[in-house]
Design a protein that fits this description.
It holds the Pfam family Acetyltransf_3. The chain is of the alpha+beta class and 179 residues long. It is 33% helix and 35% strand. The protein has a single domain, classed as Gcn5-related N-acetyltransferase (GNAT) (Aminopeptidase). The protein is globular.
Amino acid sequence: MLEGKSVRLRAYRKEDVELAWKYINDPEVKSYLVPGIPFPMTLEEEYKWYENLSSSKDTYNFAIERIEDGQYIGGCGINEVNWKNSYAYVGIFLGKPYWSKGYGTEAMKLLLRFIFEEMNLNKVLLNVYSFNERAIRSYEKCGFVVEGRLREQIFRKGKYYDEIIMGILRREFLRTISD
């Protein structure tokens, strides 16, 4: 369990699954997460995902819990690890009621601390769509910088948008926590 001031990262519990399913099926939440057609996920698919959590070798998923009341508010995780080259790809989502309250930024900083201090990796990457300005600001607060841009990579609401690749190095993260 990793704990900050307002959130903690912990293992998923079976009782989180229905809320996760509810959050992830919100059309606005889903539009930020999947490149394909944001088709709703069934509750059975969400339970199957939960059941397979422990069998994934190089993925690590954390539930995000609000400290004040223990409320499950979203999830974050390491989606891919390249041990040879010392980098990982990460992702995060929050239920819409918990947006713009600083929870996501704090959760990402906890995840980065875990990756750099416990896994001893050198770099963390993520992909974000250019229309997700709130997330981009949050990632920048964590120290991420734009490393690349896939132009007009995703089609949403009748328009093409860029997919932005952002990254942070261990030394950059260590500088942000010492400031």
